[in-house]
Amino acid sequence: MKTPFRQSLIDGERAGMRYALCLPDAPMSGTRGERLGRRAGSSVDFQDYREYQPGDDLRHIDWNAYARSNQLIVKLHREEVQPHLDLILDTSASMNLPDTDKPAALHQLAALLATAAANARCSQALWMTGEGFQRVRNDTQPPGAWGDLPMGGARSFEEAHGLLPPRLRRQGMRVIISDLLWPGDPLPTLRKLSEGAASLHVIQLLARTDATPPEPGNVQLQDTETGELLSIYIDATIEQTYRDTLRRLQQSWHNACKQTGAQLTTLIAEDLGKSLSALEEIQLLEPA
Amino acid sequence: MPTITYPLAWIAVISLPLLAAIYFLRHRFRKQPVSSLLLWQMQKESREGGRRFETPKFPPVFFLELLILALLVFAALGPRWQLPHTTRPLIVVLDDSLSMTAGPTGQQPRDEALKLLNEILAERNFASYQLIAAGAGPRLLGNTVPHPDQLKDQIPLWTCTAHATDLDAALALARNLAGGEADVLVLTDHAPAATDLPPGRIRWHAVGQPRVNFAFVNAARTPHGEGDRCLFEVANLSARAATNTLRVTAGQQVVYEKRLLLETNRTHRVTLPVPATMGTLRAELGGDALAGDNRAALVRPRRRQVRVQMSVTDTNLARLITETLASTGLRAPTNQPPELVIHQSDSLPAGREAWGLRFAPMPEKAERFTGPFVMDTGHPLTRGLTLPGIVWGAHATATNSLRTPGHLPIITAGNVPLLTTRTDRRQREQLTLYFAPDQSTVQDTPQWPALFWNLLSWRARAQAGLPEANLRLGAEVPYRPRGKSATLTFPNKTEKKLDAPAGEIQLPVAQPGVYTVASGSQTNRLRENFAINFLAGAESNLSAATTGKWGAWGTEEEVRFEYASVLPYLILLALAGALAHLWMIARQRGRT
Fold first, then answer.
1. What is the distance between the alpha carbons of residues A210 and A217, in angstroms, rounded to a whole number?
2. What does the pLDDT read at residue A114?
3. CATH homologous superfamily of domain B89-209?
4. Do A73 and A185 share a domain, yes or no?
5. Whole-number Å distance between alpha carbons of B432 and B129
6. At CB < 8 Å, which residues of chain B contact A?
7. Which of A155, A255, B65, B188 could join A159 in a cystine, given CB atoms 3.0 to 4.6 angstroms apart?
């Protein structure tokens, strides 16, 4: 991994030490751990009674109930699970916008969330876009030990999801970090990503140049993903049109998130340090 | 069109492309990568109708700055507009001489002069327009017209074929036409003779160039014995030495050919004896700047002879006169009908065309005069005569004859007439010679045959037909037709019938070439060829041709009164533009 991004991971890890992932109230699934799961388990928390079935642990038979009703009743307890975070990173070319802090912010944010997840005793998995979604090497380790996050994939987030979707753990937390700049209705993608999730957070990470149009004048714009060129003269009208278009895009994502129960927030890469409070507002992070 | 006061300020025009270059460099398409063109979708869709060439677009403030700069540059030029009430008539004096056609087509002084005239006409307005062609004499090319477009019909009449140009006469005519109030424009190919132009509002433009030119400056063909003698004189009228080829032909026969190398202003003479029967000789020079003076033609001269009838009773005197007449070579072998009767009687000679030379009776003791002899040097009879040191015997009392009306003295010895003439009512000349051979020595001198040669020559010139067969362009061509009319055939074979009620007419020849003139009845037809040659050394001389401008239409003070400056308006417009510029800049800053 290139040195600047390695430093970003270290910076993110350092920043994440102050936070813990804010776990949802809903029961979660996961490997055995310290959090109550949605299924019956071996915790001390009572969950329910049911008739004994062959194979049940005899230690869970409620003998008092048997004395009262002469029936074998098994006492069920909530299982204790370790919560899981699936961090889905958009590493397409658009997130590697030259001359911006966008790729560094992506690394820093991923490291921060992973560290906060570790603070909340969550397991984690990092997914990145490419020719379909792939796991990041050593993603269960602290961020400093992660393998490369190759930036600049030719596939957009939506295309990569169509090719090979990430194998997300059910009832886990899911966080998407992307600039969300791809055409089409976001709802189908969001539905798939939110399916079986305990929670879904969508972080739109934009460079400042994404959020604000270029200075007035003649500009030749080049799409970093497709290489397509567009020569235009930017004036006040074009500036306003750009802002309106961005607002409409964010509104469509907001509506899609509302329908799928996801939380959406937008961060500016260059202002990442000052924007972390937004992650607390959507109850993704809490002070450790 | 405005008049520019400071043409050097055109240099400031460079600021306009400079500004454009600065904006182009600042506003050329700067490349900027973006995450996605998704947010520019609206702009993309509007261009799907077809790809077009992308040119940098400049902000409105650029065009405003360009306008301000243009206004300032225009103001720096000091433009002035002519006031409508100050317009004057324009009289254009056009050099109509042949030298205005020197050089290749399109670069001739005439072409340059026309170009300059059009520029001046486009530059300012005049109250009216008049064109004068200045040839050997001034010639109006048309009526005064109120609009310059109407000059188009007159320009083709400016042919530039004259053998000389008299610009002074044309300027005098221009002054007479407008009473000195007109602006006079002279378009020629040489500088004015004097540094100070003639008084008046005159602008003199010379548009010529010194070029290499050879020309015929003399050409003559005269009877010489049984044959003719031809003379061609060629001059190098250039500012430097040059070569050319002279070729003389008679029909298909080459009579003479030579390559000439001449220093500047040097001439080369060729004298060719040719048989009298040889037809028209044509001499030609190789190509040079002026084609019109490279050709000369010499037709056969007419051998004129006079039929002389001798009626002198004094044997010695008759022999003397007969021998003298024979020595002139102008006496015809026959004497009927007589054209000149030499007699001693008091009566007029018979014959409708008979002139008379009467030898007045002398006293036995005639007076011997040794001078002073007074001659009418303008008379054809005294051509080439000098009478110093001779003795002329005459009648001292002949003074009385001068009292007779109509007698004009031609030669006198003091107040004693020696030779007088009188034109009778039939237009015949009747001469009286007071001459006593015994008391005179004049018959022993060359003056005597010269006097008779003049007499026969004068009589011959009075015959029907042309006096000379080879003439210079510009010379008068008198013609005495047989009858009351004549037909002139031009070199281009067109014919013109000329009426001659008074006997002698001047033939209208304006172009060089070989002409034919005929007159008389079918049975007594007189048909003669004659050649007109362009032999004008001064006009062919291109060494003094130059380009320049002299004089002006009024002083600077006059111009100030006749033209209004628009500088204040331009400055005001530029200031308004600057304010608008400030407002636009402030508006842009407010928006950002």
1. 17
2. 93
3. von Willebrand factor, type A domain (3.40.50.410)
4. no
5. 59
6. 26-44, 54, 56-57, 59, 588, 591-592
7. A155
B308-461 has the same fold as B89-209: yes
Dist CA A252 CA A27 (whole Å): 29
CA distance A266 to chain B (A): 15
Q: Which H helix or E strand runs over B269? A: strand B267-275
Strand order in the sheet with A199-206: A132-135, A123-130, A84-89, A173-178, A199-206, A263-268
The answer, as to whether pTM is greater than 0.80, is no
| Rounded (10°) CA dihedral B395, B399, B405, B410 | 70
**B285-307 pLDDT, tens per residue?**
998 888 889 999 999 988 888 99
| B110 vs B348: which has the higher pLDDT | B110
Give me the domain span that covers residue A76: 36-81
- What is the Cα–Cα distance from B73 to B16, expressed in whole angstroms? 9
- What ranges make up the beta strands (E) of B360-424? 367-369, 373-375, 392-394, 408-413, 416-423
Residue A169 to residue A195: CA distance in whole angstroms: 10
Mean pLDDT of A235-250: 89
Which amino acid, A160? A
Q: In terms of domains, do A207 and A64 share one? A: no
Check if A81 contacts B (Cβ < 8 Å).
no
B54 interaction partners in chain A (CB closer than 8 Å): 231
- Between B39-48, B205-214, B221-230, the lowest mean confidence (pLDDT) is in B39-48
DSSP code per residue over B3-46:
EES-GGGGGGGGHHHHHHHHHHHHHS-EEEEES-GGGGHHHHHT
Test A218 with B56 for CB contact under 8 angstroms: yes
Residue, of A43 and B221, whose pLDDT is higher: B221
Smallest CA–CA separation between B58 and chain A, in Å?
8
- In whole angstroms, what is the distance from residue A67 CA to residue A53 CA? 18
pLDDT category, B4, cuts 50, 70, 90? confident
Domain-by-domain residue ranges, chain B? 3-82+566-591, 89-209, 308-461, 470-533
| For residue B525, pLDDT beyond 60 | yes
Note the pLDDT of residue B116.
93
Which residue would you say has higher pLDDT here, A10 or A28?
Answer: A10
- What is the spatial distance between Cα B186 and Cα B167, in angstroms, rounded to a whole number? 8
Q: What is the CATH number of domain B308-461?
A: 3.40.50.880
Residue A239: phi and psi, rounded to 5, are: -60, -45
- Is the ipTM of this structure higher than 0.90? no
Helix (H, G, I), strand (E, B) or coil at A140: coil
User: How many domains is chain A partitioned into structurally?
Assistant: 2
Burial of A141 (0-12, 13-18, 19+ CB in 10 A): middle
